[in-house]
Amino acid sequence: MGRPARDRKLAILGFHKIGAPSSGAEPSWWYVPEETFVGHIEFLREDGWEVIGLAALLRGLAAPDSLPERGALLTFDDGYRSIREVALPWLLRFGYPAVLFVPTGFIGGRNDFDAGIEPQESICDWHDLRELERAGVSVQSHGISHRRLSWLDVAEQEQEVVASKTILEQALGKPVDVFAHPYGDEGADPGALHELFQRAGYRAACLYGGGPNPLPISDPYRLARLAMGPDSDLGEMLGRCGEASDGR
Known about the structure:
Elements: E1 9-15, E2 17-18, E3 31-32, H1 34-46, E4 50-51, H2 54-62, E5 70-77, H3 81-94, E6 98-102, H4 126-134, E7 137-141, H5 154-172, E8 178-180, H6 190-200, E9 204-206, E10 213-214, E11 226-227, H7 234-237
Helix pairs in contact: 1-3, 5-6
């Protein structure tokens, strides 16, 4: 017998960097050790969470019953090369798809948007992104400049949302359907931003922080994600539904 409708959940896990800093610097909270990451995805399998890919998520927005009773989506922000080098082999071993949100202005470069705050790390180049796509990691938009949308005027927001989508679609030859807000920032007028997403052809947008999303999804442009760090207790986090918050 299935779970009651109120108990059906979609947990979207939000990671950033997997493994230790490449520079040998002291890791920040945004680095999840490799063994911790493996423990998280092992927990999902052992606790009966079905890891889905982006296509299943998008189908589920229109047809909620197509989603598993307890579904999980693995996402990674910023496009760090550690996703390809450290996380991807484990995703392939488990047979799990994932989503990577990348700011197009930093593809093939480094995380200069965190200069002076976080250790400098390499961002995937176009070859890396194509390899990730072939391996089941869907590349989606994280804007262009990784700036908070509340810092930008309407024209700048449109540039971040629309141009990033166009750049990725043209370079990768595939649709880009989902946007992840840098720092989880929806801007000063979320309603207007959601209208912009619709006009641009986005089908969903991810915030940062919170708990599992109750099904059916009430607002596809406000998908909450579990903020995953080195000390995250995934079992405890999956037991609650919360509000979205700040994130990188």
